Amino acid sequence: MRTHWIGAAAILLIAGRATAQKPQVQIVLPDRSAFATEAPSVRSVALLSDEPMRNLLVNGFPARLHYRMERWATGGFFDDIKATGEWDVVVKYDALGKLYHVFRAVNNRAVELGSYATLNEAQEIVNTPFRAPISLPKRGQRTYYNVVLDVETLSLTELDEVEQWLRGELKPAVRGKKNPGTAVSRGVRTLMVRLLGGEKRRYEARSGAFKP
């Protein structure tokens, strides 16, 4: 009987691993009839679910997700980039209030998407498809979209900048501009992040080509 119980537990463990979602980013195109009138949406999957990322968030390192969408035209000798759109999502844990705060910034304007008691709830908001802020292709122009997502953790020094940025007082924290005078702080941050198991990660996705 004990053997059967161990066997069943092993099967459940394997099944759980098999159904675990792999971190990725996806492009969701509109209906074919709306190719020329609606921008695509971008959907993230399981970006904050791994243990290193959870540890970093709980230990005071906010996560920054930087999205860059590109619209390309094809049909000549070389593909030609026609437009770009960028935005950021920041997830920050408030240890005092025991809440996860999620923010989105588009064109340097930040909006709080909500506060959540668990990281799973916050991740559901991060995973919600978001329509990319990018111009649309001309009718008849063979087109495809490409999105690059960089996920990184912010240092304790950068956290101060994020707080100011969320109040509309500062922009460099989200735009990736660093103060050269904080090299020592960045070195300590890099060491702590590595000790906690975090690194900068990049995900990329490309849509199929289409004609609006």
How would the blueprint of this fold be written?
Elements: H1 2-19, E1 24-28, E2 41-45, H2 51-58, E3 63-73, E4 80-94, E5 99-106, E6 109-116, H3 119-127, E7 130-131, E8 143-153, H4 156-166, H5 172-175, H6 183-195, E9 201-206
Shape: elongated
Total helical elements: 6
Can you give the helix content as a percent range? 25-40%
Our measurement of the CA-to-CA distance between the termini, rounded to an integer number of angstroms, reads 63 Å
| Strand residue percentage | 25-35%
What is the N-to-C succession of helices and strands? HEEHEEEEHEEHHHE
> Quick one: biggest sheet?
6 strands, antiparallel
Given as residue ranges, the uncertain stretches (5+ residues, pLDDT < 50) are 1-19, 172-197
Radius of gyration: 20 Å
Total domain modules: 1
Q: Give the class from helix and strand content and strand pairing.
A: alpha+beta
Strand order of the largest sheet: 6-5-4-3-8-9
The whole-number mean of residue pLDDT values reads 78
Q: What's the number of extended β-strand segments?
A: 9
Keywords:
212 residues; six-stranded antiparallel β-sheet; 6 helices; 9 strands; elongated
Task: Describe what you observe in this structure.
The chain is α+β, with helices and mostly antiparallel strands. The protein has one domain. It has 6 helices and 9 strands; from the N terminus they run H-E-E-H-E-E-E-E-H-E-E-H-H-H-E. The chain has helices at 2-19, 51-58, 119-127, 156-166, 172-175, 183-195, and strands at residues 24-28, 41-45, 63-73, 80-94, 99-106, 109-116, 130-131, 143-153, 201-206. The chain has a 6-stranded antiparallel β-sheet. A hairpin with a 4-residue loop joins strand 4 (80-94) and strand 5 (99-106). The radius of gyration is 20 Å and the shape is elongated. The model is unreliable at 1-19 and 172-197 (pLDDT under 50).
